[in-house]
Amino acid sequence: xxxxxxxxxxxxxxxxxxxxxxxxxxxxxxxxxxxxxxxxxxxxxxxxxxxxxxxxxxxxxxxxxxxxxxxxxxxxxxxxxxxxxxxxxxxxxxxxxxxxxxxxxxxxxxxxxxxxxxxxxxxxxxxxxxxxxxxxxxxxxxxxxxxxxxxxxxxxxxxxxxxxxxxxxxxxxxxxxxxxxxxxxxxxxxx
Length: 191
Known about the structure:
Low-confidence stretches: 178-191
Distance between the termini: 35 Å
Strand order of the largest sheet: 1-2-3
Shape: elongated
Oligomer: single chain
Strand content: 5-15%
Structural class: mainly alpha
Order of helices and strands: HHEEEHHHHH
Mean pLDDT: 88
Number of helices: 7
Largest sheet: 3 strands, antiparallel
């Protein structure tokens, strides 16, 4: 449905819209039951961390489609080629025209997803480091428990290394994918 610009916008926005809907629903529920907004905020944070973490690799992969181009022979006598987006072969990879809004949108969402989200996770983990390491969880550390509970307390930060490795692997794989479908060289480099 729609062109590549619509797909990039949808892929970057649907997790945000879902999270905002849940935040509003939890706030309304707490207000109806005369509960605290702090409780609603912590539940919302827990939901947002789980959802954003789970969708981060696939959202990131879809955003980098805006930069994947494939060259085709245009004029055999002059050995001239033209490049088109692999996700939408009707858009020439030129950085202007129809490609320009796609790049602008993708860059904006790349700042939000593969850059800002991991930084937010790191800041939250840093803020909770003492309560995690001292085995005295705070309400905030419980809300972000998804990020650290699978590891020993001294290695609470390790999920960020695993996430970074996964995002880099996806980026390298997507940017080195050839027309033959071979990405084994990039897999070997990152693994």
